[in-house]
Each structure stands twice: as structure tokens, then as C-alpha cells.
Amino acid sequence: MNAPRSTCVEVNGWVVLDKPVGLTSTQAVSRLKRLFNAKKAGHAGTLDPLASGVLPIAFGEATKTVPFVQDGEKAYRFTVRWGVETDTDDAEGRAVATSDARPDPAAIAALLPRFTGEIMQQPPAFSAIKINGERAYDLARDGETVELKPRPVTVHALRLVSAERDEAVLEAECGKGTYVRAIARDLGRALGCHAHVTALRRTRVGPFFEENSAPLEDLLEAPELAHEDMLGVEAGLTELPCILLDRNMAARARRGQSVILRGRDAPAEGAAYAVCSGVVIASGVVERGEFLPNRVFNLPF
């Protein structure tokens, strides 16, 4: 017996979701995929169930731009609880160290520069990093001792927003692979009081910001507006230089062939994307005055 034919449709574009607490990133993608009856969808940057905020979701051809979004700068606002360190570095874990000491705001602020710039950071044991093909959090949940090696990450800015006796609110702007939970853990250790994250909200992922995100309940209640507000595939590429092609050049790029660039408006060497008549044709690199496509988009133009 033949399997029933899928009724899903081709949907191409981006939705900037304001993910609620209590939902995994995968669950959020599944709900929007059903909402749009889309064949293909994925997200750019996992948010833990306890975290809320910006979760960019790509549909169809936009999934090809996910790596560019994931490589972009991230921004977070988070609450740090002093006095307890947990095995997950957040409120879900069990306490592994406690302290009666509490830092004053001046001591917190004075220590923040130590955690900015390019730093070495040990990722949390409960993280999605793979160890011999297994996720670290799966090994940790099975009771195995997980020791992840410190690795370089970049923290562009770290600010103290407010502070009370038992907790503080901070904001961080950071690069790919940075764990805010690890910042809180290491800050607590450096202050001699231990700490973990109790609330985390992501306010930016690459070109997508909190003020442009839509709550899940709003999208589910008004699917027609969700369709109208969907961003184009190029929304995931806006942090790259854009090259304008005519139809002949676009045809070459779509075949994976290089395109010679002429004129002063040609971008400098490096990553870029090309459009024709407002439609994304390909992403690639500019080398020696040529655009070399490495990913082609199947969109009508």
C-alpha cells in the first residue's frame, strides 16, 4: 500500500518567534510548522525550556541561511541567584555548592571586565555539545561525569542592570558558543559566593531583535497575520554584503558558476549574497573580483 501523499506546502521565509518559558526549541518549531503547514522548518540557535525570547525560525529555502544567523551576535538579559551553584548552572539542577556570602553591587561591577573580550570558558556539563557522538546533557542525566574542556568565546559586553542582596540582573552581548549559564557560574565562584541562573531571556540573534519578535500565542490566534508578517529568505542574510545581478548573471550563479563583478559597488572580498529583481539567488564569497556561489536558492524570479 502506498503511503499517503503529504499535504504540506512550500513555505519560504523567517518568523522571529518570542519563545515562551516551558517550551523546547524543537517544540516551538513543530507548532509553527503545523501552523504554516510547511514542508520544512528549523531554528537558528537553541533556547532551553527555562529561557524565553528571540528564536528565529526558518522555513523552506530560508533554512539554507540558518548558519549565517547562528554565527551572528547574541544578546541576553538574565537573573543570577547568589549562594547556590547547581549541576546544570540553572534553576533546574540540584545544588552542588552553597555559601552564605553575598556580593555587593560594586564588587560585581568591578569583576565584569574579567569576563569580557575573548575569554576561556568551560561549557556547562548539561549542554548540547557532543562527546563521542553523544550529547553532554544525555551523558550527565545518565549519571556520567562530564568534563568539557574550556574553549575560547567572545563576550562583547557585560553589564550590571540591577542588584539586590540575593540576586542580580545582567545583560550580555556575545558571540557564537557562549554560555550565559557558565558566566553566572564563574562569576559566582570568582566572587566567592556561588551562583546560578534563574531567568534567561534572549533579546537578539544576528539580524533579529526582541522588538521585532512575535509571541507564540499571537501567531496561533491570528495565523493570517503570521503569514503576512513572515520575513523573506534574505532576512537571514542582511548582515552580509549584497550583490545585485542582472538576469543573465543570475542564471550563471544559479548553475553554480562564478560571476564577474564590475563597477565600484562590487563588495570587498569575503562572504556575500546575490539578488536579482529583489529575489535571493545565491550566497557565496567574493574573490578576485568574482562572486563564487556556494549555496543556491530555488526561488522564482
Summarize the structure.
This protein is α+β, with helices and mostly antiparallel strands. 21% of the residues lie in helices and 36% in strands.
The low-pLDDT segments are none
**What assembly state would you assign to the polypeptide chains in this entry?**
single chain
Task: Characterize the largest beta sheet: strand count, sense, and whether it forms a barrel.
Answer: 10 strands, mixed
Helical segment count: 8
What is the percentage of strand-forming residues?
35-45%
Instruction: Write down the Rg.
Output: 22 Å
Elements, N to C (H/E): EHEEHEEEHEEEHEEHEEEHHEHEEEE
How far apart the termini lie comes to: 39 Å
Averaged pLDDT, please?
Answer: 90
Which structural class best describes the helix and strand composition? alpha+beta
Label the overall shape.
globular
The total of beta strands comes to 19
How helical, in percent, are the residues? 10-25%
Kindly list the characteristics that best describe this protein:
single chain, 301 residues, alpha+beta, ten-stranded mixed β-sheet, 8 helices, 19 strands
Structural summary, described in words:
The structure is a single chain. The chain is α+β, with helices and mostly antiparallel strands and 301 residues long. The chain is built from eight helices and 19 strands. The strands form four sheets. Strands 1, 2, 3, 4, 7, 10, 11, 12, 13 and 14 form a ten-stranded mixed sheet that branches. Strands 15-17-18-19-16 form a five-stranded mixed sheet, covered by helices on one side. The protein has a two-stranded antiparallel ribbon with strand order 5-6. A hairpin with a 2-residue loop joins strand 12 (195-205) and strand 13 (208-209). The relative contact order is 0.17.
